[in-house]
Amino acid sequence: MDNLAYTIPEFVAAARVCKSKIYTEIAAGRLKAKKAGRRTVILRSEAERYLAALPDLTPKHSSGRAA
Q1: pLDDT tens, per residue, the chain with 67 residues
Q2: 39-43 and 34-36 as β-strands: parallel, antiparallel, unpaired?
């Protein structure tokens, strides 16, 4: 069964984003978290929404040099 929610360490591992960035995003309101007792969790639907809303990578223009 897929996780319905992730703890902060689980989300960090799954999303490959550093823990301090996650806490910054929660504090800024860009990532919504829930409290389950003392534990902070991120619902799977919110994790998917947050990751999908991240900006696309825009490739830099090539300098014309071969790599």
Answers
A1: 478 999 999 999 999 999 999 999 999 999 999 999 999 999 999 999 999 999 999 988 766 565 5
A2: antiparallel
pTM of the model: 0.79
Q: Rounded to an integer, what distance in angstroms lies between the CA atom of residue 37 and that of residue 35?
A: 6
First-to-last C-alpha distance (Å) of the chain: 44
**Contact criterion met (CB below 8 Å) for 42 and 33:** yes
Burial class (CB in 10 A: 0-12, 13-18, 19+), 17: middle
Do residues 14 and 6 lie in contact, with contact meaning Cβ atoms separated by under 8 Å? yes
